[in-house]
Amino acid sequence: MKILHWSYTRKYQVKSVFDSFPDIVAVFRQINGYYFIYTMKGMDSIELPSRKHYVQMEYLINKELGTLSAYKNRKALQKIESS
Q1: What is the C-alpha separation between 38 and 28, in angstroms, rounded?
Q2: Do 34 and 74 meet the contact criterion of CB atoms below 8 Å apart?
Q3: pLDDT tens by residue, 35-77
Q4: What count of other Cβ atoms lies within 10 Å of the Cβ of residue 10?
Q5: From CA 2, how far away is CA 57, in angstroms rounded?
Q6: How far apart are CA 23 and CA 32, in angstroms?
Q7: Kind of pairing between the strands at 13-18 and 34-41
Q8: Taking a C-beta distance cutoff of 8 angstroms, is the pair 14, 35 a contact?
Q9: Can you give the pTM of this predicted structure?
Q10: DSSP string covering 41-83, please?
Q11: Which string of b and e fits 29-45 if b means at least 16 CB within 10 Å?
Q12: What is the DSSP letter of 11?
């Protein structure tokens, strides 16, 4: 999966389009120094993104914006790894 386009929208928000789902615009919000998927628009596609795709999208946008280290150190990931 690759980012086709991304841009800033409002304060602490980024929207992007990915090649695997070109009809869907993912809106990300920033919290604790990293971006996570807040909402998606245009989900009329037959194939909808799964949780695996969401994680890939979050990883790619955080890598692109230079917040990957904060994303990797988030609490949710630490809870999963310690279980």
Answers
A1: 5
A2: yes
A3: 999 999 887 767 788 899 999 999 999 999 999 999 988 766 6
A4: 9
A5: 8
A6: 29
A7: unpaired
A8: yes
A9: 0.84
A10: E---SSSPP-HHHHHHHHHHHHHHHT-HHHHHT-HHHHHHHH-
A11: bbeeebbbbeebeeeee
A12: T
Q: Which residues partner with 3 through β-bridges?
A: 18
Question: How many C-beta neighbours within 10 Å does residue 24 have?
Answer: 20
* Residue whose pair of structure tokens reads 């980024």 in the numeric block: 14
The DSSP letter of residue 10 is S
Q: 9, 28 in Cβ contact below 8 A?
A: no
Q: Which residue has the tokens 């869907």?
A: 24
- Tokens linked to 33: 């120094």
Name which of 14, 11, 42, 10 is nearest 28 in CA terms. Answer: 14
